[in-house]
Amino acid sequence: MTNLAEKSSFSFEVFPPKTAVNNQKIFQTLDELHDLQPNFISVTSSNRTLNFENSTLKLADYVQNKLKVPGVVHLTARYFDRKQIDRILVELKFLGIKNILVIRGDLAPGRPPKKDFQHASDLMAYIKSKDANFRILGACYPESHPESSNKISDIHHLKEKVAAGCDCLLTQMFFSNETFYQFQENCALADINVPLIAGIMPIVNRAQALHVLKQSECCLPKKFTQMLDRYQTDPTALKAAGLAYAINQITDLVTNRVAGVHLYTMNQANVARYIYQATKSLFTIKNPV
Ligand code: FAD
Fold this sequence. Notes:
alpha/beta; TIM Barrel; 8-stranded parallel β-barrel; FAD-linked_oxidoreductase-like
């Protein structure tokens, strides 16, 4: 990864597809994302499938070794024990993958979690104790994690995460930059000084919009909900408005010298390309150190 303090980084998240057809397509998607010269590409993992080696690791290997782009594996804490983690660390080292986004993960229905790592910070500390050369990324939530009783305890646990070895934080998606700036300030007040990378989700279809409205704990700005209301029955207009919204968010974030922008691509390279074309000149400007 490049020095995050020097310039705002631009990176992508992809997820391993469920079906074999999409399995072929994902490599094409990754090839297309590579052309956009990202600082890194992260690959999610799932507690439902628990198929880390055959999905997340396989794609991250392709990113890292075929495309020569730094690959980041998402590694969940809840369903692994120490022995399994040891094996995964050996594989990561063998493949030259240095970047691990450690998350706790949510409970998979009907499957009890393992006991070794309760929270992301437990796994972070374990990995760092095994090999301090791994670069550990962690998750953070500008509007607090939904399970947190209040913002103070959430920030307190975030500080523990950084103390456990987290080198960089990636945010949950948000649609109000003001909320992000407030969170950034709260982190600074709590002496959390690692780079905060902003997670941006471009809304490009109705299903995605409804999902965000239903699932999200985010505070949704009026201009965002107005956009969804206005264009929800017209796919072309909704996509145009959603892309413009994400580009506006990114422009404002980079103007305000964000450490980085991480695009939740939903495996749509055309969406990433559109946003890249519209914003690439912003990412060449150096931030003051
Ligand atoms: P934690 O840091 O463990 O925090 C979870 C909750 O526990 C928070 O409320 C926190 O305040 C609290 N807490 C933390 N430490 C302590 C402690 N010591 N004592 C008491 N309470 C504590 N999920 C996936 O399954 N796969 C993915 O690939 C994935 N990628 C993600 C990427 C990003 C950028 C983000 C933001 C989330 C991602 N998630 C993913 C979702 C994530 O797993 C869930 O949000 C999960 O509920 C919390 O994960 P965490 O790492 O933030 O957990």
